[in-house]
Amino acid sequence: MVCAKEAQHDIAGVLAIKPAAVTKPTWTNQLYSCTYQYPTGSFTVSVKQLADRAATTQYFNALGTLLNRLPDDVPMGDGAYLTANGSMVVRKDNNVLDVDAGKLPAQFSKLHLSPADVASSVAMTILGCWKG
């Protein structure tokens, strides 16, 4: 899952920085979530599991409205978009992945990644591990 040691290792490799800590995952209302904490900021990764495609589409679209979805679609999963703060939201099957990078600085890690770059890289890394 998105908060497991394997995910932490893979994400650290992609971002070229290890987190100072990863919060204990929570599971509430079919939403699994944790926060990757760094000395200069943090990002939260969550996955919402939904009952069917219709519910997934409804949640995906509602989240886009809530988070100020940018107009361009991103070719990832079964649909994806960036938000105004640089976060990435991706649908895959009956799941919606949200990488909320809004608490990161404008340039993150020694790679000088933008929040959008971090969110996209983390989402791609997670999707690469998902089965189904």
How do you describe this structure in short?
The chain is built from three helices and eight strands; from the N terminus they run αββββαββββα.
Describe this entry's structure for a reader.
The protein is α+β, with helices and mostly antiparallel strands and 132 residues long. The chain has a single domain (5-129), classed as PknH-like extracellular domain (Protein Transport Mog1p, Chain A, 3-Layer(aba) Sandwich), CATH 3.40.1000.70. 30% of the residues lie in helices and 35% in strands. The protein is built from 3 helices and 8 strands; from the N terminus they run H-E-E-E-E-H-E-E-E-E-H. It has helices at residues 5-15, 53-66, 115-129; strands at residues 21-22, 26-28, 31-38, 41-49, 69-73, 79-83, 88-92, 95-103. Strands 1, 2, 3, 4, 5, 6, 7 and 8 form an 8-stranded antiparallel β-sheet that branches. The protein is globular, with a radius of gyration of 14 Å. The model has no long low-confidence stretch (mean pLDDT 95).
